[in-house]
Design goal:
- By secondary structure, the protein is of the alpha+beta class.
- Helices cover 19% and strands 41% of the residues.
- The protein has four helices and 13 strands.
- The chain has a six-stranded mixed beta barrel with strand order 1-3-2-6-5-4.
- The longest helix has 16 residues.
Amino acid sequence: MKTIKVQGQLRSEHGKSATRRLRSEGKIPAVIYGGEETIHLTVEPLAVRGLVYSPEFQIVEIDINGKTHRCIMKDMQFDVVTDDLAHLDFLELVEGKKVTAELPINFVGQPNGVKEGGRLVIKLKSVKVRTYPKYLTERLDVNIDDLQLNGNVRVQDIKADNIEIMNPPRIPIASVVMTRALKQAEADAATTEKKK
């Protein structure tokens, strides 16, 4: 699993004016919760860029005064005017304690329906899961080789050991639909058949 290492600095001041001052100094206020205690800290924007602007699921190791905290990012807030990163929330991973996270779906293979002229439509790019930290993975692989024209792959079709998927099981995550050209070809074939 991909891990990003981030240097953090403890902060003692809290509240709007303190966080506003930190942002003006080019730092991002953050908080780590879920462990023994809630930790208020600041991080450098460049250090978390790869984490914030990536669709991948990653573990974050935040080093604060020599102590490393293994976390996942739970939330991020952006400034409504400048669109700059304003705040980060991290959840500390504690062995033996389940966590809820959003894992990306990786579609593997070439659907049979696409080979027949259909078009693959991705309806869901990630799912919400609940599991122990040791079972967290970068992504959930879903094989779509057997997906036929006008067929669906649903949340219930995702195979993941030791991971509970929180999304409703009947929701489609991908489907193969007919293209306009294929519909026209079928309509033309039906018209030709009627004329005979």
